[in-house]
Amino acid sequence: MPKFNTLDDMDLEGKVVLTRVDVNVPVENGQVTDTTRIDKIIPTVKDIQAKGGIPVLLAHFDRPKGKRVDTMSLKQIVPALEAALGQPVVFADDCIGGPAKRVVAALEPGQIALLENTRFHEGEETNDATFAASLAALGGVYVNDAFSASHRAHASTEGLARLLNAAAGRLMEAELLALEAALGDPQRPVMAVVGGAKVSSKLDLLTNLAEKVDHLVIGGGMANTFLVAQGVEVGKSLAERDMADTARSILEKAEQTGCKIHLPVDIVVAREFKAGAESQTLPVAECPADAMILDAGPQTVDALREAMTACKTLIWNGPLGAFEIEPFDAATNAAAQVAAELTRNGQLVSVAGGGDTVAALNKAGASQDFTFISTAGGAFLEWMEGKTLPGVAALEAAKH
To answer: Which CATH number, 3.40.47.10, 3.30.870.10, 3.40.50.720, 3.40.50.1260, labels domain 186-369?
Structure first.
């Protein structure tokens, strides 16, 4: 039973449904170059229409910092939105006041409107009560379908949920149910794979996971910092030597909580960081002084395969090596394919998120088999860190 209302709980017949979406998509020369985020909101919009509601979309675009910036207008995404929805979209030149009121008042059942960038107003990011009330005045129901923006306490993600009957959209619902299944009340044993360059940027994450999961796999540049903390020489590898004490405290915490930490047992090293660079695979303790560690080796992957096969739940954030360049994508690709196979066979619930992660899993050809892949970056990380997301908390408070 979700802790929040879904579209199934709401009477939408004849109501204007203010729907917060994330359509902050890449645009070049006025053209949308990747429609993934637009495609993800279609089920919510169609379900609102099927229940007799009139969707009015609220969204931000880029960072105009409370001022009107023409290059950050949502008007430029209207053609891509219309193509994805298969119908015209009415655009309002503002998200509050006269322009918004006139567009919304003229809408008929079956129509859709998109309001201008909420961040053109300072009150959006300060969660100003007057601005939130001006938005709320436009509709009868609020639906939040933007998990990826819900780690911000903004007027359109948090304030509105406290002023109108509120529910989660389909994407938000899927995201929250997947996350609950992965960390809230997971099937055990649980493994977390955390990769990336720096321990400093994922300190809260590692600390939280050491308390929550049974296996914690540390990869990428972060693994080098942990190796340094254990007295292993890493040559010219990327490592945050000043974080060694922190790494040791995370290792101690994991020992206390019974969380097994997995670090590379063998490494792939090279003298230069470029595609096809001459590389060699060595035991972890034998990194030459003039080389850098750019990937985990095959023995490390074998150990991960064995541990992963014994697990029921997997959470993945970040690559195991310098996956952008061959041959340093081998460990990430191999481990991702193990996860994909176990998920396909019904042995594993696998949830992944974060920009690099999605790119790495796509490159490995594994993403379509994962149970759930979050398109959110910061929100997914903050959730993994155990933080309360204001937009989600507001939805839970609205449950009745």
So the answer is: 3.40.50.1260
Backbone phi and psi for residue 282, each to the nearest 5 degrees, phi listed first: -135, 160
Q: Which of 97, 235, 377, 378 is catalytic?
A: 378
Residue 198 a catalytic site member: yes
Our answer to whether residue 353 is catalytic in this structure is no
Catalytic residue among 46, 68, 101, 198: 198
The pLDDT of residue 24 is above 70: yes
Active site residue 86: no
Q: Which of 37, 119, 152, 170 is catalytic?
A: 37
Task: Point out which residues pair with 282 in neighbouring strands.
Answer: 267
Q: What is the pLDDT of residues 210-235, one digit of tens each?
A: 999 999 999 999 999 999 999 999 99
| Sheet architecture: strand order including 215-218 | 260-262, 215-218, 190-194, 313-317, 349-353, 372-374
Answer yes or no: 102 catalytic.
Answer: no
- Please state which CATH number belongs to domain 7-171+389-397: 3.40.50.1260
Asked if 295 contacts 320 with a C-beta cutoff of 8 angstroms, the reply is: yes
What's the pTM value of the predicted model, to 2 decimals?
Answer: 0.90
From the candidates 30, 98, 184, 355, give the one annotated as an active-site residue: 355
**Where in the chain do CATH 3.40.50.1260 domains reside?**
7-171+389-397, 186-369
Please check whether residue 9 is in contact with residue 142, taking contact to mean a CB–CB distance below 8 angstroms.
no
Question: Which class for 145: exposed (0-12), middle (13-18), buried (19 or more C-beta within 10 A)?
Answer: buried
pLDDT-derived band of residue 400, with 50, 70 and 90 as boundaries? low
